[in-house]
Amino acid sequence: MPATATIRDLRNRFPKIRRLVEAEGEVLLSESGHTKYRLVLHTEPPARPAPPVDYWARLTAHQPVSLTAAQSQALHDDNRGDR
User: Fold this and answer.
1) 14 lies in a domain?
2) What pTM did the predictor assign?
3) What's 37-73 look like in SS3?
């Protein structure tokens, strides 16, 4: 059973409530005789490592798209003119 305290205890005796949360992991807070709130000990989520950076994909994303063989041949033919 988790520890219990009142809202007034939380306001006036916070160090005691903090020690209860640290010891029990959870404290139920009551107001006017009814349990309304639950204090739980905050735990940091485990840090996820950043995904590895794909430098080659980043580099090629900024490069122009190369011409196909047919486009290259058409450009070559256009530049030759009427010879």
Assistant:
1) yes
2) 0.52
3) EEEECCCCCCCCCCCCCCHHHHHHHCCCCCCCHHHHH
